[in-house]
Design goal:
With 496 residues, the chain is an alpha+beta fold. It contains 12 helices and 18 strands. The chain has 2 domains: 181 residues, Chloramphenicol acetyltransferase-like domain (Chloramphenicol Acetyltransferase, 2-Layer Sandwich); 249 residues, Chloramphenicol Acetyltransferase. The strands form 5 sheets. Strands 5-6-7-2-16-15 form a 6-stranded mixed sheet. The protein has a 6-stranded mixed sheet with strand order 10-18-17-14-11-12, sandwiched between helices. A two-stranded antiparallel sheet has the order 1-8.
């Protein structure tokens, strides 16, 4: 192994491994559920044998799937990606569902979300739920394909490329990755002093950048996110089983609302989440006078080079949950989002992030354990930076996306809840269907249906405040089987 050359994980990728190992209650896995309409299919895929044969013809289109982790003893250095064969018998599950209910289906999906991935194999898996009937917000007959990818392998936009490679005629162009010599433990140990020396130099630069940001904040040039947010019902230290919920909207409705109000699709979604959290907390516990905030991943793929597959940075956006009027709240969120984009665009912010990118593997692992210990064992009335997470990934046009001869009509993915974040929101769009999905701890809500209604109702309220005479179009629950999807430029489904 030591004579081989292979790509090495970046710190941002390895953090997902270290967090999963330190907090095993929550797998760091991106689970994408693709919905295919089999009602009118002449030859739908109905057996495991047919599914494996169909997938085997397409796996070569996504080279990133043909790799597995190679760890170094004691994590003296970051893991490597080494070439690996694929055994679909091990990585693919197939179940015929038949007539069921929405609640029963969600229990199955929750079990999929909670299951960890075997990291001795290529870090992904596929689970197929075929011949689903009787679910109110699915076609009369449907198949759901769950594409599960460990976050160490790629980010949300990387998942869209893998999905298009499998379900369309698109081939994923392998991004150039620097290959380095795979170290044995002795070589990794010898290189640690030099690595820590570089880390120390980065620390000096990061401290200077932090002082510069503080100065800009004091002079009003920028606005930094608040360090603490009030702890609420959704920020408990215990973890529990997941509850899945989802609401469907028309992407065109959301896009039109954003255009008319001079905001973005992401702003509209954050406003809807904010309003739903306001109502939920007001009814179940209490709504703090101080506003809550959301951690929102922002893609930086086209902005500057990041030495990792996860090319994202974190924004912490004020949700202005202390504002009752939905339209006013939308504009406040838009302004807060703008401030966070400006902050994350600064070279000083990049310098601070580069400090963690240069952390030696053992330092990164110790940082994870220290952070978890400090945040899970303290009894503070506050939580650091944010109360929940909202991620938005556009999957592009639905046309050309198929499983066998069954067309894709929608996709939703999940951000599993975990300690401190008792609910996570994931937004995805395919064609003209936008899904807001969420996972919540059962300690936060045992039944997700009421929160689904709150999300749908909040979108209706926002629509009514902009178009008072227009018929409401929020969807819960309603079948989307007969909708006509439209091809939208990816810029129309921008995540920012």
């Amino acid at each position: 192994m030591t004579s081989h050359m292979a790509p090495q994980l970046g710190a941002r990728d390895a953090f997902y491994l270290f967090f999963e190992e330190a907090d095993m209650d929550t797998p760091r896995v991106i689970t994408n559920f693709f919905v295919f309409d089999t009602t009118s299919s002449a030859h739908p895929i109905q057996t495991r044998v047919d599914a494996l044969a169909w997938l085997s013809e397409r796996l070569h289109r996504a080279p990133v799937l043909h790799r597995r982790l190679h760890r170094i003893t004691a994590d003296l250095d970051y893991p490597y990606w080494v070439d690996s064969s694929i055994d679909l018998e091990q990585t693919t599950r197939f179940t015929t569902i038949g007539c069921t209910t929405r609640r029963e289906l969600h229990r199955r999906l929750e079990a999929i979300i909670e299951r960890p991935i075997d990291l001795t194999l290529p870090p992904w898996e596929i689970e197929i739920l075929a011949d689903i009937e009787g679910v109110s917000d699915l076609p009369r007959r449907a198949t759901i394909v769950a594409l599960r990818v460990h976050h160490a392998l790629t980010d949300g936009l990387g998942c869209t490329q893998i999905a298009r490679a499998l379900f369309s005629d698109h081939h994923v162009t392998a991004q150039p990755e620097p290959a380095v010599k795979v170290k044995n433990p002795a070589m990794a140990l010898v290189s640690l002093p030099a690595h820590f020396a570089q880390y120390g130099i980065s620390l000096v630069h990061a401290l200077r950048a932090r002082r510069s940001l503080s100065l800009m904040a004091r002079t009003g040039t920028i606005k930094l996110p608040e360090a603490d947010r009030p702890r609420t019902l959704i920020n408990q230290k215990e973890n529990s089983e997941q509850r899945l919920g989802r609401v469907q909207l028309k992407l065109q409705d959301v896009s039109t609302l954003a255009h008319i109000t001079g905001t973005s699709i992401n702003d509209v979604i954050l406003s809807v989440v904010s309003g739903a959290l306001r109502e939920f907390l007001s009814e179940t516990s209490y709504l703090p006078k101080c506003s809550l905030a959301a951690r929102v991943p922002r893609s930086i793929r086209n902005q500057y080079n990041v030495p990792a597959a996860n090319k994202i940075t974190a924004m912490h956006i004020d949700l202005h949950t202390n504002e009752a009027d939905p339209l006013t709240r939308l504009h406040l969120i838009h302004n807060s989002s703008k401030c966070e984009k400006e902050r994350t665009d600064l070279s000083e912010t990049r310098t601070i992030e580069a400090f963690m990118d240069r952390a030696p593997s053992i330092a990164a692992k110790l940082t994870v354990h220290r952070w978890l210990r400090q945040n899970y064992k303290t009894s503070s009335e506050n939580v650091p930076l944010s109360n929940t997470a909202v991620s938005n990934v556009p999957f592009g046009p639905a046309i050309g996306m198929n499983f066998g001869d069954s067309p894709a009509i929608g996709v939703f993915f999940t951000l599993p809840s975990r300690r401190e974040w008792g609910i996570g929101h994931a937004v995805s769009s395919l064609g003209d269907v936008l899904n807001i999905a969420f996972c919540a701890n059962t300690t936060v809500m045992d039944d997700a249906v009421e929160y689904e209604r709150k999300l749908s109702s909040e979108f209706n309220r926002l629509q009514s405040s902009v178009f008072p005479s227009q018929e409401r179009t929020g969807v819960f629950p309603e079948t989307i089987a007969n909708r006509t999807t439209t091809t939208l430029d990816d810029r129309d489904a921008r995540i920012n």
